[in-house]
Design goal:
The chain is α/β, with parallel strands linked by helices. It has 21 helices and 17 strands. 39% of the residues are buried.
Amino acid sequence: MNFNSEQWANIHKTFEKIWGYKEFRPPQKEVINCLLEGRDALIIMPTGGGKSICFQLPALLKTGLTIVISPLVALMENQVNDLKNKNIPIELLHNEIPRRQRKITLDKINKQQIRLLYLSPETLLSIPVWQLLIQPHIEINGLILDEAHCLVQWGETFRPSYSRLGAVRQTLLKDKISSKKIVIAAFTATADLQSQEIIKSSLRLQNAQTFAISPYRSNLSLAIKIAWNPRCRRHQLLNFIKRQQKQSGLVYIRSRAESEELSQYLQKLGYKVVAYHAGLSALKRREIEEKWLEDKLQFVICTSAFGLGINKPDVRWVVHYQAPFLLSEYLQEIGRGGRDGKNTKTLTLISEPTGWLDSTDQQRNKYFLQQLHKNYQQTKRYFYQIPKQGNIIDLKEEIPKIEIISSLLYRWKKLKWINPFDYELIADISSLNIGKIIKKSQQELQQMKQYLMTRSCRWQYILNAFGFIKEAKGFNCGHCDNCQRRR
């Protein structure tokens, strides 16, 4: 379908009326056109680039329901509340919603009274929700995977439901009265070429159009510093925070226990700070997010989930107290700073490379690989114990880890999903080389290590790593620590 000037005038009118903008940012118009034409897409746009408008606007212009699959409650609530204030027929479903409200939302879906439904992969595949969505009379026009990098980073062992999303479209279409297409679009701020292929394959995208915008953000200054021992690490953090003059920020840390320990230490020094991690109750996490957004907390000591999709424009600094395992995680987390376009500082603290004086970073990487190896070996053993065909709901009591096992087997191309609940083993596993799979993870860790130790422009390294080879050629940002050092 090609839209004429009159149709685009109406699209612009809706866009301006709801969001208040007169013009689209590149490539918003092209993405919106792609989804309105019913074509699958993979969209890679930097944080703050206006990704959500690209799927929210087409959802309002089409008939039927658009399902938005999102990883975190805070991320969903942030977007849903914003659109509800604009009088958009939108709802969300998650485990924390009271039973009465949940019943009202399910009734609205049944009566086709909403245009956008936000939920997590786990909620989508919960039996009551799924049994409603497959009803023949419910028209579904689109499946949107927001923060699609989570499918790659979290999808094997942490959030195994992601591996089943590829079977959703064909199963939904099976019994629908309407023969209309269901378009699938995946949105993320970070995906290198390998991650892009995993996303396309896992979601079974058909002739997908890829929109990839350079991750470079001129307002983010990148810096890495060596902390020679744990005491030095704290000292460097304190010095950095003092220089920020009470401006809003984030400190990323890799474990729950360490986030609690560091926040208590900083509280004693008089800082308005708390720890945030998955071990806290949902109510407590919401409370921390609200306090931070309202500037009642200067910063938060947090694990990787914090800040995903939360729109706080004036985050002036981001510290990685410990480096992430993956370069894509790093890019996501620094991307939560400077969403208003103003200059923002980032700092990553690392142990000295040899590990002789402080082996903390090396030990964390070693533990990470050991846990992967343990999970992979366990899955290989289970391959011979699970039925060749089965339903993961039926098997859950007998094999509590069936979701993780099936997710890993799917990634290894040893299992296919007949629908989101029934699987079939499709290959023998005896030839599977666990060492080779672990080696890939080691290469990802090595990529992060190379970034931390590079002497060239840090943004140039990132551009190359994410496939923007042309843009990276001869590139110097002029404001990372390496560029400044050369100047």
